[in-house]
């Protein structure tokens, strides 16, 4: 294992090292109560970077998929159509990205860069990125009541997808390199040799973290099977739909949601910018076509859509994972309590009910010897 | 800037050559790419594919490609139905607009070789099917019987009149037209498009037939019923779906139904697939 030890007092020097290498560094900060956010590290706020925090509701996804992003500038040049593409590049390091959000970015990588068309805008932001994963080990701060990464197989410590991973051992952090860029940092003097005993401590800390998860859970396997075999009663989708307020919150906080809309707006005489903006399948207009026809009329058709897209085995195979990373944000923000764990539980319960009613009413002749 | 040459979202400049009014609010726009290299890239499109059309200041929308790849002229036929199509209708010959594509799977015309082709269209549903009809007529020897059944609400709303008159007169194509409500100019059949199947003298073979169905939802449902009753299997009824689309390349998510992104996995589906996708036509 390419691992080193960093003394507790030195761990924020990783931020300095990255800044010295030309990265803009974003890191988590903490306000009052549950209020946390990712922000650009400056000389002024550097000492306030929070190591253990409740994961910000606004996921770091926005650094690869900004919620509004200019795609191109369109010009009317004496009647001629002109389109000039503009893609931002960045040299950005995310310090303290949680394992669930890392899995989110891996999911987005496969979605935007895989298959027949590559998304150059995503690629251009993603390319220069350096990801420092902080394993969630603090049961008070990191592991919140809504977390269920252990069900989604994404945490509390990511297996891959990071350049550098930090696990808090108390007096020091164990740093693991996931890429040559991460390993390059190990030439710096703050990184000391790690020993067998440190590796064992890391294992113990993570085992303890796994035991710190609360009640929130998600029985993905059962739900994936039910969604993929189309065996969820319409009644269950309706119950889910009835609880949806159509605010779109679940999709906007989701690290694995990918949908966007595109719109043109004037920025000068005969000049327009084409931007893409996060969109949500929860919103009524998401599928409404010009002329007014909307194939998804009922709310439950739209809710059905979100969970079908995330849980259908076809898409799980296509993107190599359930499009849910277990961060629990949807559960935290949903006013109708139909975040992923609740929906999976409702699906599971409806299957159990269907199974029980089948057992209660046996079909065909009953064997005499029973 | 990196890799922007491979930018799938970037429309290429096109110029409007002329317009032709088809019916009220529906107009054909004949155009060409400014750069002949773009035209070469575009030339390999298949019947049933679509393109994304940008109009300066208004936005972008997906449009069927009514011409057959065997024709030289490029055109779109578009109904004025929203803000971008309104803006397209306001363009004058010589004006520029943007086109990217072609996108989607298209009709597998090669797979239909040797089969009888039945085209059933209602209203402006004829637009995407026009491409297949012209294509099949161009490769006449590769297909069996070719039948076109077309219905519109009134005689004034019959699309592609000149072209269809020519098809009706051509050898090897049977072309039937009907209207829901006749007027003094009309002496042809009156009734829904499905009623054409029962006209005296009309036989529709189903043994080795593929049926292309395109039209408004209500027409689609009734025609499907008729075709299934005539013995056509679900897998040999094909259609092309319309959805709200923003990207055309499987990323924006708007057109995703069931396990399919209509823009990349479709827009052409068999009725068997459509039924399994589980959403309204």
Q: Could you name the CATH class of the largest domain in chain B? A: Alpha Beta
Uncertain residue segments of chain B? none
Most extensive interface, chain pair and sizes:
A-B, 58 and 55 residues
Helix and strand run of chain A: EHEEEEEHHEHEEHEHHHHEEHHHH
Number of strands of chain B: 14
The rounded Rg of chain B comes to 19 Å
CATH-defined architecture of the largest domain in chain B:
3-Layer(aba) Sandwich
Q: Cα distance, first to last residue of chain B? A: 41 Å
Q: What shape does the CA trace of chain A take? A: globular
Q: Could you give a short account of the major beta sheet of chain A?
A: 8 strands, mixed
DSSP helix fraction of chain A = 25-40%
Give me the secondary-structure category of chain A. Answer: alpha+beta
Principal-axes shape call of chain B: globular
The CATH topology label of the largest domain in chain B is Rossmann fold
Oligomer: heterodimer
DSSP helix fraction of chain B: 10-25%
Write the layout of secondary structure elements.
The complex is a heterodimer of chains A (370) and B (281).
Chain A: E1 3-7, H1 13-20, E2 24-30, E3 36-40, E4 68-77, E5 80-85, E6 92-97, H2 99-113, H3 120-127, E7 130-134, H4 149-152, E8 164-168, E9 172-177, H5 180-184, E10 191-193, H6 196-210, H7 220-228, H8 234-242, H9 249-252, E11 260-268, E12 271-278, H10 299-311, H11 313-319, H12 329-333, H13 340-360
Parallel strand pairs in A: 2-6, 6-7, 7-8
Antiparallel strand pairs in A: 1-9, 1-10, 2-3, 4-5, 4-12, 8-9, 11-12
Helix pairs in contact in A: 7-13, 8-10
Chain B: E1 12-23, E2 26-33, H1 36-42, E3 50-55, E4 59-64, E5 74-79, H2 83-89, E6 96-103, E7 116-122, H3 126-138, E8 146-152, H4 161-169, E9 173-179, E10 209-214, H5 217-229, E11 237-240, E12 256-257, E13 260-261, H6 262-265, E14 268-270, H7 271-277
Parallel strand pairs in B: 7-8, 7-10, 8-9, 10-11
Antiparallel strand pairs in B: 1-2, 1-6, 2-5, 3-4, 3-6, 11-14, 12-13
